[in-house]
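Tokens in:
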């Protein structure tokens, strides 16, 4: 368990100690207009309002659960995102070839297990789309977040005008970064 992992046992214990759901919210207003004051609404109670032998303890557990939710929920969401990214990284090859034509949605050319295969797939796809292709050259780029390598395909033409057809290859980071919590 890393320092960013949620303490699932503690979260589960808090959830189990709280009143069983479904929960609802009831607002109570204090209108003291006759005394010249008016207060904002405030929540009364936490769960399905039934009688308990020891209401004070029950509401204490409910309050602990609600108070911890502000940190528990972001931690759980971050862990779910991390696990999904890790699962995707295991299922999909690390390299991807993309056609990004500018103002149109990106087009996935394909996935590959290594850089040479990704570049080969991208060049083959470009050749399948055009009658004539200039000399092709890969230029390293600053990778996007979540990627540790990226290169753009440049087409060098005999007239000295070089074009970027909008094709890139990139490799996902080997280590799945932990997702940030609320406020990041």
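Residues out:
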């Amino acid at each position: 368990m890393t320092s960013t992992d949620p303490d699932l046992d503690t979260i589960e214990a808090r959830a189990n100690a709280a009143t069983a759901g479904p929960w609802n919210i009831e607002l109570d207003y204090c209108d003291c207009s006759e005394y010249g004051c008016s207060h904002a609404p405030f929540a009364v109670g936490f769960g399905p309002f039934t009688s308990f032998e020891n209401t004070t303890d029950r509401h204490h557990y409910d309050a602990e659960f609600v108070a911890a939710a502000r940190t528990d929920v972001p931690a759980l969401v971050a862990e779910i995102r991390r696990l999904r990214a890790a699962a995707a990284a295991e299922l999909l090859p690390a390299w991807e070839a993309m056609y990004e034509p500018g103002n149109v949605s990106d087009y996935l050319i394909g996935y590959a297990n290594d850089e040479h295969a990704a570049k080969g797939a991208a060049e083959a796809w470009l050749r399948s789309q055009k009658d004539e292709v200039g000399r092709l050259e890969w230029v390293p780029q600053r990778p996007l977040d979540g990627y540790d390598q990226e290169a753009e395909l440049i087409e060098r033409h005999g007239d000295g005008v070089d074009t970027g057809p909008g094709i890139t290859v990139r490799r996902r980071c080997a280590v799945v970064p932990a997702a940030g919590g609320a406020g990041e």
